[in-house]
Design brief:
The chain is of the alpha+beta class. It is built from 16 helices and 15 strands. 23% of the residues are buried.
Amino acid sequence: MKRRSIITLSSSAIRCKKSDFMVVSVRQISNGGKRSKKKIYHRDYQLDKVMDLQKKPSLILQLKSIIQSQNHQRLLLRDLEKEVGFVAKWNFMSIIEKYPSIFRVGGGCGKEFPFVTLTGKAEKVAREEGEARNLMEPILVKNLRKLLMLSIDCRVPLEKVEFIGNELGLPHDFKKSLIFKYPEYFSIKVINGRAYLNLENWDSSLAVTAREERFARERMLQSAGGQNKVRITKDGNYLGPFAFKMCYAPGFRPNKSYLEELEKWHKMEFPSPYLNARRFEVADPKTRKRVVAVLHELLSLTMEKRMISAKLDAFHSEYRLPSKLVLCLIKHHGIFYITNKGARSTVFLKEAYDGSNLVDKCPILMFNDKFVALSGRHVTL
């Protein structure tokens, strides 16, 4: 009987007294016997905090969109339950009551039913969303092309693109507003009864990863500073063409042997994520490092540099992701972080965040920040 590895990482995982790490259990099951191995997975409280900070802003933005979709841009309060469900309705009612600077309640007199609409100030800011969407269009087209270029056959099932549409920042009508608008880049083809988003033309200038772009910037800064010696630091960062940015949790202190092994890994050459994965042996260490680069690039293409782990795993066949994806992410915890805060586990690209703040924001996220700021609270999305 083959052994099976089961990786347990949940909010109910065993914690130490100071709650600064979780113990991840890896159980090896063979011939009815059990053997447990425990690995320490250090928490990053700043990234956990991101999930808490997004709750109210997401409700505010969702309610804004619902109101804007209604006739005359006003929502009858009796129809709120039909839009969001009975349980969620009360969360939205609380938001309406708590933020009168954004939402105005009217009606309720005579024959007019109570309704909610945006305040004048909120409407003024909401009108800026159109410009943000226009600025996003070339970014979305570029990222969609790169998403397809990363895949084995330069195509991805259309339902999987829709599955991660929110993470990419795609509009609801992206097939009409993006796919059909750019026939020189995209087409939809039905293969074996399944619709695929297909790449029409390969562009070598796009086959450059976010990691390579960062390395080019750091190399320029290094040259300007006159530092020619390449060395690894105590935090695990190595300045080299095949190195990744490491951002370890505050509780993690790598020892000398760990840093030595990490330096060897940093120096190891590996194929570009944009080369076809079929060309490489799965067991090759260079191929395994390439998988890390693929995951890094996938997360870099999202708006907030994070993705629900189930959505990431949905692209297993298109990008030849490892069968033990969670174990791969845990092993490279200086690059990725998995949090179970929120309804589902989420994978972060750690270098994209400074504490709980996303470093680079696209136009639509900047608009969202401006709209949510009307609530009087500084909220990080």
